[in-house]
Design goal:
The complex is a heterodimer of chains A (234) and B (459).
Chain A lengths: L6 E14 L2 E14 L3 E5 L6 H8 L7 E6 L2 E2 L5 H11 E4 L11 H11 L7 H11 L15 H13 L5 E5 L7 H18 L2 E6 L2 H7 L2 E6 L2 E7 L2
Helix pairs in contact in A: 3-4, 3-5, 4-5, 5-6
Chain B lengths: L2 H14 L1 H38 L5 E6 H4 L26 H8 L4 E6 L2 E8 L2 E10 L13 E2 L9 E5 H7 L10 E11 L13 H5 L4 E16 L15 E4 H7 L6 H7 L9 E6 L5 H10 L2 E4 L2 H43 L1 H9 L4 H44 L12 H28 L2 H6 L2
Parallel strand pairs in B: 4-9, 6-8
Antiparallel strand pairs in B: 1-10, 1-11, 2-10, 3-4, 3-7, 5-8, 6-9, 7-8
Helix pairs in contact in B: 1-12, 2-10, 2-12, 2-13, 10-13, 12-13
The chains are: A alpha/beta (234), B alpha+beta (459).
Chain lengths: 234, 459
């Protein structure tokens, strides 16, 4: 799978180093990785393995120290800050372990936020917000605040927010990390369903191998910032 | 992000920390209020002063005298050696009705009138009172000084009516207001020119033209005047008058009396061939800015002029500096509240680190975050500005009220020491917004620079 036209996102010899005092931290060290379009890729590793750093680089939240990340034929390192923000806004969606919904906003308002940032026309917004909330089964709770919802519902809302701008790649950073196993499993089913029905590329960071084995198409394992294995699941 | 979205998000964010943002806004409002109050005081005092001064007739007035009258005693006429200067006539044409009408035709002249003012005696209730009578032109009615009149202004230019100055009225009666409607008798000395043959024939030669004595006889006359009003001070006293008038009568009436005036004795010596000449004429200009041109025109006619033009200029400089000082003091409070606002916004960044990280992850550019903080500062500035202008206005009302209570206790007429013109209202609000945006500069750029990865990690 080396044809770039077929890949949703490709990391090419990417490194991300931090200077911490006198020591150099190699959070990501010379990683080359491809996620094909429509593929569910799991980044597996223990805490500190560099999997989240790699995800942030691919999501356009951070820039690599060296190497390049190509998404939709564009090298993210060469984008201006404004172009990179547009990439985050229109090309990718993101969910986090701690949901990161804004607590003073209702679900509806949280989901509308990316539409505001992408300057989507006001008349289009209500329909898109509703559609997104319906997809995750929360249409009836649109007027609630995050604190009034369970963890699973909050993660669903976060998913609705990530999807509302119709991105091509969904990045998920330990999306089940704050949930009990049953709720986590239902979230994973939802993510899988989204991948299949929308044909989306999913890049998910997790430290739970069983989860990766069950849901991902391919598993890339990292340790100490290096890619240690890259295999297609059975 | 679009402006409407920015505004909505900004107001939403401000509502989230309602107490803190309200206090910050209140701080801005107090700053704006102090600035507005100080400037209102400056503007109000300036208006008060210029109104009082223009009412006094000092600054829109040109006094015209004949050159011979203005020249110092026993001093030779100054030679005009400089050929570049248009030599002014050494001797002025007579300052008579012909000259008066010519002056009336100069552009922007409102009126030309003589000073008629003479010491005399009035009888009221059988008792004599020595006093000074002054002729008041019709135009004086527009003067603020007649605003506080007890009674009415003259019913017409030729009405045999009198307005009394309050101090004089108190001499006549213990209850000055009761005098309105009553009559008094004005006794005055009418001047009657002597027939030419009655004049001395001893004046000869060169002196004849200048000093053909215009002798006159003096005949005592009586005139009934109805008291129509009582006024605090004589308005439009101008300058060049001798003592202020205490019995004011219409100017036309005063002129017709041909009462003997103080300068008549000099006219006897100088001689004016029996024609009426004026010791001085007062020209009132449409506005103080026209005074200079009118003066030049009158000088070209060969007369001496006098005005207080420089004094108005100095007054304006004084008030400009005065306003500046008031503005500086007012700005101090605003400077303190600006620091308060910087503090609030910087605190907000710390508190909202995570939110900023989320916004960036969802696609907010640095510019969006910066604009959001600017919008929040701007909304606080707008609210603070409106509130501040309102507070400043209230302070102004309070100060005016307090001042007037004090003035009344001192038996002085009330005054508007405060003025909040529209430009100050709009200026105050705009200034508040601008100051708030400046205060938001540093916090906004700091928030915009926040690294999203670090911000999201922040708990």
């Amino acid at each position: 799978m080396n044809a770039s036209s077929d890949s949703a996102i490709r990391a090419d010899r990417v490194s991300r180093h931090y200077q911490m005092g006198s020591s150099l931290i190699r959070a990501v060290d010379d990683v080359t990785l491809i996620a094909a379009a429509g593929e569910f890729l799991a980044l597996l590793g223990t805490s500190g393995s560099g999997k989240s750093t790699l995800l942030n680089l691919m999501a356009g939240l951070d820039r690599p120290t060296s190497g390049s990340i190509i998404a939709q034929g564009r090298n993210l390192s060469e984008l201006s800050p404004v172009e990179l923000a547009q990439y985050r806004s229109r090309t990718v969606g993101m969910v986090f372990q701690s949901f990161n919904l804004l607590p003073k906003m209702t679900l509806e308002e949280n989901v509308e936020l990316p539409l505001r940032l992408a300057e989507v026309d006001r008349s289009e917004r209500p329909a898109r917000v509703r559609e997104s909330l319906e997809r995750v089964g929360l249409a009836k709770r649109a007027g609630h605040r995050p604190s009034e919802l369970s963890g699973g519902e909050q993660q669903r809302a976060a998913l609705a927010r990530a999807l509302v701008n119709q991105p091509t790649i969904l990045f998920a950073d330990e999306p089940t990390g704050n949930l009990d196993s049953a709720t986590g499993e239902s979230i994973m089913h939802l993510v899988k369903e989204i991948q299949q029905s929308l044909g989306m590329t999913i890049v998910m960071v997790t430290h739970e191998r069983p989860l990766a084995d069950r849901f991902a198409d391919r598993i890339a394992a990292l340790a100490d910032g290096k890619l240690v294995s890259d295999r297609v699941t059975a | 992000m679009k402006a409407r979205d920015l505004g909505e998000l900004a107001i939403r964010n401000l509502r989230e920390a309602l107490l803190r943002n309200s206090l910050t806004t209140l701080g801005i409002a107090v700053g704006v209020a102090s600035l507005v109050a100080m400037l209102s005081l400056g503007v109000g005092l300036q208006e008060l002063a210029s109104k009082r001064l223009s009412n006094s007739g000092l600054f829109d007035t040109v006094i015209v005298m004949s050159r011979s009258a203005s020249r110092g005693f026993g001093r030779a006429p100054e030679p005009h050696n400089d050929p570049a200067n248009k030599p002014a006539p050494r001797v002025s044409p007579p300052l008579d009705d012909v000259a008066r009408q010519a002056m009336q035709k100069i552009p922007n002249v409102v009126e030309v009138y003589p000073q008629v003012r003479f010491p005399t005696e009035v009888r009221f209730g059988g008792a004599p009172y020595a006093t000074m009578v002054a002729g008041i032109p019709e135009s004086a009615q527009e003067n603020g000084a007649f605003d506080g009149i007890d009674g009415k202004f003259f019913s017409g230019a030729n009405a045999n009516e009198a307005i009394l100055q309050i101090e004089f009225a108190k001499d006549l009666s213990e209850q000055p207001s009761s005098l309105v409607g009553k009559d008094l008798v004005l006794r005055y000395a009418e001047r009657q020119a002597l027939a030419p043959e009655a004049r001395s024939t001893e004046t000869t030669g060169a002196a004849a033209s200048d000093a053909a004595g215009g002798g006159f006889s003096v005949v005592p006359r009586d005139m009934n005047l109805r008291i129509v009003g009582i006024v605090d001070t004589e308005p439009a006293a101008g300058f060049g008058g001798i003592g202020s008038g205490r019995v004011l009568i219409p100017l036309d009436v005063a002129e017709k009396l041909r009462a003997t005036q103080l300068n008549d004795l000099r006219d006897v010596v100088r001689g004016t061939n029996g024609k009426t000449t004026y010791a001085s004429l007062t020209i009132r200009a449409k506005s103080p800015s026209q005074v200079e041109k009118i003066e030049t025109a009158v000088k070209d006619m060969g007369f001496s002029t006098f005005s207080l033009l420089d004094a108005t200029r100095n007054l304006r400089i004084f008030f400009t500096i005065f306003d500046l000082l008031l503005a500086i003091f007012g700005s101090l409070a605003l400077a303190v509240s600006t620091l308060g606002m910087v503090n609030t916004l910087v605190m907000a960044i710390l508190e909202r680190r995570r939110e900023i990280g989320v916004l960036k992850a969802l696609g907010a550019a640095d510019r969006d975050v910066k604009q959001l903080f600017f919008a929040e500062a701007g909304v606080m500035g707008l609210a603070g500005g409106i509130l501040g202008v309102g507070m400043g206005w209230l302070i102004g009302r309070a100060v005016t009220w307090g001042t007037n209570v004090y003035l009344r206790r001192q038996n002085l007429p009330s005054a508007h020491v405060f003025s909040v013109p529209l430009w100050l209202v709009l200026g105050g609000i705009i200034f508040s917004i601008v100051v708030s945006l400046v205060a938001g500069l540093y916090p906004a750029s700091r928030a915009a620079r926040l690294n999203p990865v670090e911000a999201l990690r922040y708990e």
